[in-house]
Amino acid sequence: MFYLTLITYFYFISILYRMNNWYKTLKKAPWTPPDFVFGPVWTFLYALLAVAFIIVWKDRKCYPYCTALTYFLLQLVFNLMWTTIFFKYKLPRLALMDIVLILIFTYYTYNQFRLISKTASNLLIPYIAWLFVALSMNLYIVLYN
User: Fold this and answer.
1) Which domains does the chain have, with CATH numbers?
2) Tens digits of per-residue pLDDT, 99-138?
3) How far is CA 74 from CA 9, 78, 131, 140, 145, in A?
C-alpha cells in the first residue's frame, strides 16, 4: 500500500508539472488554493488513506479481505482517473461525474470501515472534506468555462 501511495503521489505530481496553458487560463473558483498546495495536501491525504487501509486490512474482521477493501479500491481507482480525465483529456464535465463516483464509493468505504474500525473511518474524514472542496472547484470550472 505504501508503494501504491508513493506511485500515485508521483503520478499526480507529474501531471501537475505538465499542466498546460489550458488549466492556467480556466476561470477558477475564488477559493482555489495556489498550485503548490495540492502536492502536500494530497501527500497527507494519501498517507491517511494508506493508514486507514492497513488498519482495516489487518483487523481480524477483515483479514485477509473484506467488502470494505473493495469499496476503498474502487474509490481509489476513480480518484486516480480524475487527474487523467481532467488534466490530460481536459474533460471537466466528465471529471465532475468522476468526483461524484469517488464520493459515493468513499461514503460506502467510510461506512464499511466504521464497522471494522472507527479510527480507520475517522482517518477518511479529511479526505472526504477535501473531495467536497474538489467537487466545488470542479463544478465552478464546469459552470464558468
Assistant:
1) 2-144 (1.20.1260.100)
2) 999 999 999 999 999 999 999 999 999 999 999 999 999 9
3) 17, 6, 15, 25, 29
